[in-house]
Design goal:
Elements: E1 3-7, H1 12-23, E2 27-32, H2 35-49, E3 53-57, H3 65-73, E4 80-83, H4 98-126, E5 129-134, H5 147-167, E6 172-177, E7 182-183, H6 185-189, E8 199-200, H7 201-211, E9 217-218, H8 222-227, H9 232-249
Helix pairs in contact: 1-7, 3-4, 4-5
Length: 250
């Protein structure tokens, strides 16, 4: 039985991955901060798919949290690690609370890197395993008015590409999912409207599952793929105008 650990697994893209793997007969381990949402996710999954689901409350913004999570599941020999936990802030960078943005970097980057190291080491010994890190098309360019979040996703892209190369001969496969706008709670938490044309979370997860094994970089949507190859100056100017309009309307 395939064992799958999903951070950020109680909602959004992470939860949609959980549904897909449950339908395939996997045993699930869902990690998130909110125990209420974790219980709701487990109940919904078990009612439909009748698969074992273990829930783990873990705040990945705290130092040492990645090691604690690994220690809790290391004896399970996880086959698939999906790092979907993450969040971000919009606004002028200098106005965003320093402590909150440091926590964002801890979740989006530091804890993700630690989990990759810990689980990759275990997977290498078995000569098999899958790691998928959720980034964003925003990681390809500077992001005025969403600077810290885009920068954190640039790290995820660079780091994932590098370890995918390092682990290629070991039997461990590594992927980086880079969606454009996705209709998730990210926008509601920031008090913003979901952008027109945003992809549904279930569509994003399904695309990723379909395109694993083909490319390290998984970018759903033709327009999103096109955007990643535009000149950086064009894309940065467009992002600045777009985000400024959204913030002015909020």
């Amino acid at each position: 039985m395939t064992k799958v650990l999903i951070t950020g697994g109680s909602e959004g893209i992470g939860y949609e991955f959980a549904k897909i793997y449950a339908a395939q007969g996997a045993s699930l381990f869902l990690c998130a901060r909110d125990m209420v949402k974790l219980h709701e996710a487990r109940g919904a999954l078990q009612n439909v798919y009748h698969r074992p689901v273990k829930i783990i409350s873990c705040d990945l913004s705290m130092p040492g949290s990645a090691q604690k999570l690994f220690d809790e599941v290391k004896d399970e020999n996880i086959d698939v690690l999906i790092n979907c936990a993450g969040f971000g802030f919009t606004g002028e960078s200098w106005k965003i609370d320093v402590e909150q943005e440091e926590k964002m970097v801890m979740v989006n980057d530091a804890s993700l890197m630690s989990l990759c190291k810990l689980f990759a080491s275990q997977m290498r010994q078995r000569k098999s395993g899958v790691i998928l890190n959720a980034a964003s098309t925003g990681g390809f360019f500077p992001g005025p008015y969403i600077a810290g979040y885009y920068a954190s996703k640039a790290f995820v892209i660079s780091y994932t590409k590098a370890i995918a190369k390092e682990l290629k001969a070991s039997g461990v496969r590594v992927y980086c999912l880079c969606p454009g706008p996705v209709a998730t709670a990210f926008y509601h938490k920031e008090g913003l409207k979901i952008p027109r044309g945003a992809m549904r979370a279930d569509q994003c997860a399904a695309y990723a599952m379909e395109h694993m094994k083909k490319n390290v970089m998984i970018i759903p949507g033709f327009v999103n793929r096109l955007c990643t190859i535009l000149p950086a100056s064009w894309r940065t100017a467009f992002i600045a105008r777009q985000k400024k309009k959204i913030l002015d309307r909020a």
